[in-house]
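Hi there,

I know you've been waiting on this one. I reran it after we fixed the sequence typo, so this is the corrected version. Both the input and the resulting structure follow.
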Amino acid sequence: MGWVDSAEVSRRDPPSKAEIAQVEDYRKRRAKVRFYADENFPMKATEVLRGMGSSVKTVQEVRLRAHPDENHAAYALRNRYVLVSCDRDYLDNRRFPLIHCPVIVVFDFGEGSIAEIRAAFRCLTRMFEAPQFYGKWMKIEASRSSWTESARFLNGTTARSKYRIFRGQIQEWVEKTEA
């Protein structure tokens, strides 16, 4: 089928009343997502994220420099942080299975310019809007043009979805389905 506006995808499969109520409750509480930046996350990107109003802890601040990736994932999970990195090792589901992970976002910033960093951060839009859905069991692979979310749900199922922003709207890649 191709790219479809996320609003259209939501119209086809609307959220339940309980899900809508949960989002409203978190908005009233002004819940915010908190980030933990590992050693492979550029300081320039940390500064941009902080400039967007985000709370970001770094490995240097928590004194976990030179620790293995598993320690960073465990720290983020234990403290309810979203782990941000440029280290693709976190995408290895054998080392970091979704069921044992915090939310992990692995970025490709290209050359690392401020514009490229901001473009890659577009994947965080929904996370800022509804942080309660980004507590654990999700990996996001983000580039400047699109991002892929892999998630595990409470019932044990998993899903993989690809997104982009086109003309200011979030779009989702939807496969053609038989009617």
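Quick highlight: The radius of gyration is 16 Å.

Best,
R. S.
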